[in-house]
């Protein structure tokens, strides 16, 4: 379980349908990983997830993905289990952990204690 290389990161993102990133973006962003998970099938990376954040107050789960041909086998659950376990062991009590759930992925995240923020607040984003 580790942060993926730039090449693996780019391949898993594009192969699983996440928005593409450039090699420059990946090289700049991956070192900011607080905890990363890469799932292998044999020697082949087939899924990943990362936690990024300030190490104290705020954390975000990002890059959750499993290649389509490996979905439905519990790999997303294994990734979440590892990320949540690390957060529970190392993050300070009271730290805020967020994520963006695409489609039905919210049902996976709910199994790990994540709840919708609405109506108290709504998630927002922008791209630069």
Notes on the protein architecture:
- The chain is α+β, with helices and mostly antiparallel strands and 128 residues long.
- Helices cover 31% and strands 25% of the residues.
- It has four helices and four strands.
- The protein has a four-stranded mixed sheet with strand order 1-2-3-4.
- The protein is globular, with a radius of gyration of 14 Å.
Which regions have little confidence, pLDDT < 50, spanning 5+ residues?
none
Q: What can be said about the biggest beta sheet?
A: 4 strands, mixed
What do the pLDDT scores average to?
96
Sheet with the most strands: spatial strand order: 1-2-3-4
Number of strands: 4
What does the overall shape look like? Answer: globular
Please tally the helical runs, counting DSSP H or I stretches of 4 or more residues: 4
SS-derived structural category = alpha+beta
The helix fraction, in percent, is 25-40%
Q: What is the gyration radius calculated from CA atoms?
A: 14 Å
SSE pattern: HHEEEHEH
Spatial separation of the terminal alpha carbons: 31 Å
Strand content: 25-35%
Would you spell out the secondary-structure blueprint of this structure?
Layout: H1 6-16, H2 23-29, E1 33-41, E2 44-53, E3 58-66, H3 75-90, E4 96-99, H4 105-110
Parallel strand pairs: 3-4
Antiparallel strand pairs: 1-2, 2-3
